[in-house]
Specification:
The complex is a heterodimer.
Chain A lengths: L1 H7 L6 H10 L1 H18 L9 H10 L7 H29 L38 E6 L3 H11 L1 E5 L3 E7 L3 H12 L12 E9 L2
Parallel strand pairs in A: 1-4
Antiparallel strand pairs in A: 2-3, 3-4
Chain B lengths: L2 H9 L3 H23 L2 H17 L10 H26 L13 H4 L4 H10 L4 H12 L4 H8 L3 H21 L2 H8 L1
Classes of the chains: A alpha+beta, B mainly alpha.
Chain lengths: ~210, ~190
């Protein structure tokens, strides 16, 4: 009975049958009145969405999106960090090569006589690798001048090693300008940068084949 | 504009068609969601998300159902997701219940009406499925066939679900003297 009344208030079911039932049955009539009253209030409980709904939705739908390439940025940051860790210490030593010693230099003791200057790096986080502060340099000499050049170098320097056509000498940098001047005048060797620092230096002579 | 034309224009991302659709369906969607969840802020967010999803996925709309049905289903799925995620968050915080429904708002219902307030309180004590049936038929005024299409259930199921929902609500409001007030007013 109740289910039929429930349909009846929605305009469904056998209307004649329900009308008769409501006339005869007080309980049915009371139930019908309760459901009708409830439905009347419910039908007045519509509420509205916010007036800004259109604007909010359309703003979000048509908003220009700037996608930030987080992955690329992260990858670049990792590369940068790696570069800084690997490269900057090397730059630190390059800097040490390029600039003359100062009073504030990290080295506190003078190199010994049989010691190349600054065999170890400055005491700033790196050790274990011997670093020559005076890099050796090479000169190429023609075959027919080999004997003269070897004789010249034998006067001023000490033969450290070498083979048939390659000779490595240790020279004192004080005599280096003299040697280089002679080499330049006699054998037209030029464009040699003479190190400004004092100490021992390695000079490698390579004899060019005729 | 017929529905086919609207859908075609939506597929072209036509802002006027989008605005038209929002204007046409926003209150229907809002009421459907609001009376089920009984929280206006959640309902508003769900409605906005529903339209955004609709416009983004309009190419998936195949026309087998009406646009309103499609929107309704997106809306209810969105609501379900919101409540599930909220439930998950609540569980993480050690609370087992979802947030409670809002209190009756005179502002929302435009006027201090005790009968509405009693119904609102009664609705809190029936299930979400029952609230949905009552909302669609009694509040929105849809017929059984329309509700059947929206819920994708047979008409018979709609009738029985609605009957149970009304019975449940009637008992709840009976406890709160709804009908006595009604009679005394008359």
């Amino acid at each position: 009975m109740k289910e039929k009344i429930s349909k009846y208030i929605d305009g469904e079911g056998n209307k004649e049958e329900i009308k008769k039932l409501l006339e005869k049955d007080k309980e049915a009539r009371e139930y019908y009145e309760q459901l009708s009253a409830m439905k009347a209030v419910l039908s007045d409980m519509k509420v509205n969405a916010l007036p800004s709904t259109e604007k909010n939705v359309l703003d979000k739908v048509h908003r220009k999106r700037f996608r930030v390439p987080y992955r690329a940025i992260s990858f670049a940051a990792i590369l940068l960090v790696l570069f800084l860790f690997l490269k900057v210490p090397a730059l630190k030593y390059n800097h040490y090569f390029e600039f003359p010693e100062t009073e504030n230099d990290m080295r506190t003791t003078a190199p010994g006589e049989d010691e190349l200057p600054y065999e170890t790096g400055p005491d700033k986080g790196f050790s274990g690798e011997s670093i020559l502060s005076y890099p050796g340099f090479e000169i190429m000499v023609e075959e027919n001048k080999k004997a003269d050049v070897v004789a010249l170098l034998a006067q001023y320097g000490k033969l450290e090693g070498g083979g048939e056509n390659i000779f490595t000498y240790t020279l004192n940098s004080e005599v280096l300008p003299v040697i280089l001047e002679k080499l330049e005048k006699l054998y037209k060797i030029s464009n040699i940068n003479i190190p400004e620092k004092e100490g021992a230096i390695t000079l490698t002579i390579t004899i060019a084949s005729p | 504009m017929d529905e086919e034309e609207i859908v075609e224009r939506l597929k072209k991302n036509d802002v006027y068609a989008q605005e038209y659709v929002i204007r046409k369906y926003k209150n229907f969607l809002f009421n459907s969601v609001f009376h089920v969840v009984q929280r206006s802020e959640v309902a508003q967010d769900v409605v906005e998300d529903t339209f955004i999803k609709c416009f983004k996925k309009i190419n998936q709309f195949d026309g087998r159902s009406s646009l309103s049905t499609w929107l309704y289903r997106i809306g209810m799925n969105t609501l379900k997701n919101v409540l599930e995620s909220e439930g998950a968050r609540s569980r993480l915080r050690g609370r087992l219940k979802w947030k409670k429904a809002e209190n009756y708002s005179e502002e929302q219902f435009k006027g201090n009406d005790n009968k509405k307030k009693i119904i609102w309180e009664g609705m809190k004590h029936i299930t979400a499925i029952e609230r949905e049936a009552i909302t669609l038929v009694d509040i929105q005024g849809l017929n059984y066939e329309e509700v059947s299409e929206l819920l994708a259930v047979p008409v018979g199921t709609v009738k029985s679900r609605l009957f149970r929902a009304r019975e449940h609500l009637r008992k709840e409001i009976l406890k709160r003297n709804f009908f006595e007030r009604e009679l005394s007013k008359e």
